[in-house]
Amino acid sequence: MSFTVEKTIKTCRGKLLKLSHNSAALNCKMVLNVYIPKQFYENASVAKNKIPSIFYLSGLTCTPENCTEKGFIQIQADKYGFAVIYPDTSPRNVTFPKDCKIDPNDWALGEGAGFYLDSDTLENFQMGTYISEELPQSLASSTDLFEDKIDFLKKRSIMGHSMGGMGALNFYLNSFERNSNGYVSCSAFSPVVNPTAVSWGQNAFKLYFKDYEHEGKKLDPTLILKNKDFSDKNLNILISSGDADPFLENQLKPQNLIDVVTKKNIKGIRVNIEPGYDHSYFFVSTFIPEHCEFHAKKLGLINHLIK
């Protein structure tokens, strides 16, 4: 599958590509951004050691532009030497079935709210397949753009915010069961960690699944950790939430995940509740350096731990 380069922007010490392509999984045109770090252009030997990649999944109502313009990951990408992929949050401009009842005023459903899952009621909403399979495979095969110098399939990590944090955790945790290439590490800002227990998740699962209670449990990070054995897995997860986040108690519920991790003594998961911070990109951009250092360590780009 080929990508169309809509725009190339010189930023920091690398380049941002604004791309579009026709998605077979979603049956619509999709847009995304890719940041290529300075190492791609400076290091002649990079082909032998491909540049790792980090997939960043945005939250409700967002597009690829939100984190691209407000997250400031590019500075960290140049510092450590990784590429960043910013996908969209849902299919766009698709036709919904006549019996599909979506409140046009509900910004937590439909366009901009794909929840990174594969729906069995809305055929275009196959964001699970798109993010985990179609998009990385398409990027990897685009040697005209990336010259086979970036690893989109193996040496990669995943991170996200809010709904995207939930998606990142689900892709990471479920990859162990699928025994797929998976991700080296995962981090999340203000993630929805217990979606079956909150209205954002419940309403989404009711819309996207016939048997929403059964399918929803498969996409609930807290329940996945509670019901599956990760004792022999080498987990690399970092979660950050702000204690002034207006959604903390009624939609995000980090304490529910903390309780499961503590009770089961699950190793490799760190949850930080940061005092005074809200849900916005002011919070995300503040802790992006810490999260990027975490991923860089796990990806083998640095050899010291975060203190």
TrEMBL record:
<feature type="active site" description="Charge relay system">
    <location>
        <position position="245"/>
    </location>
</feature>
<dbReference type="GO" id="GO:0052689">
    <property type="term" value="F:carboxylic ester hydrolase activity"/>
</dbReference>
<dbReference type="Pfam" id="PF00756">
    <property type="entry name" value="Esterase"/>
</dbReference>
<keyword id="KW-0719">Serine esterase</keyword>
<feature type="active site" description="Charge relay system">
    <location>
        <position position="162"/>
    </location>
</feature>
<feature type="active site" description="Charge relay system">
    <location>
        <position position="279"/>
    </location>
</feature>
<dbReference type="InterPro" id="IPR029058">
    <property type="entry name" value="AB_hydrolase_fold"/>
</dbReference>
<protein>
    <recommendedName>
        <fullName>S-formylglutathione hydrolase</fullName>
        <ecNumber>3.1.2.12</ecNumber>
    </recommendedName>
</protein>
<comment type="similarity">
    <text>Belongs to the esterase D family.</text>
</comment>
<dbReference type="InterPro" id="IPR000801">
    <property type="entry name" value="Esterase-like"/>
</dbReference>
<keyword id="KW-0378">Hydrolase</keyword>
<dbReference type="GO" id="GO:0018738">
    <property type="term" value="F:S-formylglutathione hydrolase activity"/>
</dbReference>
<dbReference type="GO" id="GO:0005829">
    <property type="term" value="C:cytosol"/>
</dbReference>
<dbReference type="InterPro" id="IPR014186">
    <property type="entry name" value="S-formylglutathione_hydrol"/>
</dbReference>
<dbReference type="GO" id="GO:0046294">
    <property type="term" value="P:formaldehyde catabolic process"/>
</dbReference>
